[in-house]
Design goal:
Elements (H helix, E strand, L loop, with lengths): L2 H10 L3 E5 L2 E5 L6 H9 L1 H9 L6 E7 L5 E10 L1 H7 L4 E4 L11
Antiparallel strand pairs: 1-2, 3-4, 3-5
Length: 107
């Protein structure tokens, strides 16, 4: 399971993950079943990396890696943040893609 898929699975189960002072916090405790606790512990390094990534400023172009491995360039108007893109494509991960028109004068 990809870290983004696990994060979506946890959110669906009512679990929220936060990064506080470099530590992973999960809650509410009522939603944390033994199986979910095991998944979080098993994938902790990947979850820490995912949650600690800075969210770049909104961008027009994003390279989205879908859960099935497809990599697709997506364009957004208005520009979108990584969090927005990953929310629109559950289980996917997004990386900023260079915009070939950035810095060119409007015509």
């Amino acid at each position: 399971m990809l870290p983004t898929q696990l994060l979506d699975h946890l959110r669906t189960a009512g679990v929220r993950l936060d990064l506080r002072d470099g530590a992973l916090r999960a809650g509410p405790s009522a939603a944390l079943t033994p199986g979910l606790r095991w998944l979080i512990a098993e994938h902790k390094p990947a979850l820490l990396e995912l949650l600690s990534r800075p969210d770049p400023a909104p961008r027009r172009l994003w390279l989205v890696t879908h859960p099935d491995g497809r990599r697709v360039s997506h364009s957004f108007t208005p520009p979108a943040t990584r969090a927005e893109v990953e929310a629109w494509y559950p289980g996917a991960s997004a990386e900023p893609e260079p915009d070939p028109h950035e810095g060119q004068p409007d015509v």
